[in-house]
From TrEMBL:
Protein name: V-type ATP synthase beta chain
Keywords: ATP synthesis, Hydrogen ion transport, Hydrolase, Ion transport, Transport
Family: Belongs to the ATPase alpha/beta chains family.
Pfam families assigned: ATP-synt_ab, ATP-synt_ab_N, ATP-synt_VA_C
GO molecular function: ATP binding; hydrolase activity; proton-transporting ATP synthase activity, rotational mechanism
Role this protein plays: Produces ATP from ADP in the presence of a proton gradient across the membrane. The V-type beta chain is a regulatory subunit.
NCBIfam families the record matches: PRK04196.1
InterPro entries per the UniProt record, alphabetical: ATP-synt_VA_C, ATPase_a/bsu_AS, ATPase_F1/V1/A1_a/bsu_N, ATPase_F1/V1/A1_a/bsu_nucl-bd, P-loop_NTPase, V-ATPase_su_B/beta
GO BP, one annotated term: proton motive force-driven plasma membrane ATP synthesis
Domain ATP synthase A/B type C-terminal: 355-453
Gene: ntpB
Amino acid sequence: MLKEYRTISEVVGPLMMVEQVEGVKYDELVEIQLQNGELRHGQVLEVNEDKAMVQIFEGPSGINIRDTKVRFRGKPLSLNVSEDMIGRIFDGMGNVMDDGPEILPEATLDVNGQAINPVSRDYPDEFIQTGISAIDHLNTLVRGQKLPVFSGSGLPHKELAAQIARQATVLNSDEKFAVVFAAMGITFDEAEYFMEDFRKTGAIDRSVMFLNLASDPAIERIATPKIALTTAEYLAFEKGMHVLVIMTDMTNYCEALREISAARREVPGRRGYPGYLYTNLSTIYERAGRIVGKPGSVTQIPILSMPEDDITHPIPDLTGYITEGQIILDRALDKQGIQPPINVLPSLSRLKDKGSGEGKTRKDHAPTMNQLFAAYATGKQAKELAVVLGESALSKTDKKYVEFTERFEREYVGQGFYTNRSIQETLDLGWELLSILPRTELKRIKDELLDEYLPEGE
């Protein structure tokens, strides 16, 4: 029998202190009935003797301490899951948000989940094609990987997220592919953009969307990525699907963590974020991967906007430690009209070599990738030299590198948000651009590959 308490002693921000409680456990789900009969929900954050600290998901406004009733449910926050969730839109707490019927659950799962046991992990080594050249060729995404996108305020990360959700697919696989899209703290206009884009392009037919709006209580943002990942794990490991989880914006999630930490009067860490920010982020990111003996997988693309474009800020800094690389959006490229504005030089996918090559993409993938990186870096240096000394100071070869760099940014990186290139098209475009340079400069590619792929007459 559930006990009911009227012993609230304090409400501070999204937190509520309940005294004289018995048998309450950490992470336990809580029902809060206001004096007007309204029902809200919460979760136990901390238990100390007969006191329990509860975080209120819907916010504390209107709570009368004397007349509000609190019931501890004896179970953690859970989610009803089903394969029928594909094609549907939910709010940040997993409640149906579209005009469709309620989901008939196939299972009820604890949203907290846990990281995959390292002994059970299968190594990520299967290529995922996003249709974006700067990712597929130069920073390859692999099934089971976690590859974040580092953006900045005002940069088009929402367009990039929608493009990946539309275009991503696992090549040469008969298994089903699904996208779980989780948005945290986005504006109503952004939510409308995602819903409209997914519906118009048909991406909604293979997607599950969770939308937590900026107008929703910040406390709900803590639950949104957990709910999304619980759905992804069910589809992957129970239904055998390849699942790509796109989460935007992780910065809003971390801001919500900081708000709770401040309300708990905890000693702040760097820039006011809690000292356990690394641990908390790892509980989310480490839920990506593959399990030995199971066909499904969970691949993550978390998107975060770096405050003041500072890559040393705690959020991108800690994210980079936990994940396997990063895709960096560049403001200078964006101002030039290059979309998506991916800066390939500081971007990195630590598993790119595992998902490319003969039998996965093409045998010329790695050599052309290395050559493009080298040529682009040399071309950037030549352009900087021309700014200082003038173009007349450049050699004939330097001018070829400058031409390569300009075309590389304009044609290869700047493909637009609605161009879906196969990996073969991307590799062929790479060879076309490399043909601008003298053959003697292509030192990272073997002669037999140059004979086979380099366009004739160059």
